[in-house]
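Batch job 17 of 40 flagged for manual review because the log was empty.
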Amino acid sequence: MADPDMQSQAVAADVTEMGPIDYVVLEWPRDVTPAGVADHIVDLVDRGVVRVLDISFISKDDEGNIIALEVGDTDAFAPFEGASSGILSDQDLEDAGEALEPGTAAAVLIWENRWAAPLATALRKSGAQLVASGRIPVQAILASLEAAEADD
């Protein structure tokens, strides 16, 4: 991964040219190694689909305490060693940890959707602004498609 200081400077330098920014909290049981996940994220970065702006790791113990983890605590995310830029605050990690089940660990990522940057830039230049956004879970799409099939 890129030097985090260089990455932070690049983000500040080209913020008007950026695509939409998303965050995700990826949870797994604390005793499970999420094999292959980092490889897929690195592939998206290498293909220019996303740019990881920050990444941190947390866990929630059985009593509900939220604990910050080092990248080195899991080999599965070794490619992200040193990639934290500081965008994620301690409060952000605490808030993310509230969503976790006890006995789990998580990666918290902020990434830019590079694929959408040209459209986002054109929209900003035209004076447009985002007034609503959201995600539709795959399960909801499947349920809608099944309902549409049942109506046919």
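Reviewer: the log was empty due to a logging misconfiguration, but the result itself is present. The CA atoms of residues 20 and 133 lie 10 Å apart. Unflagging and moving on to job 18.
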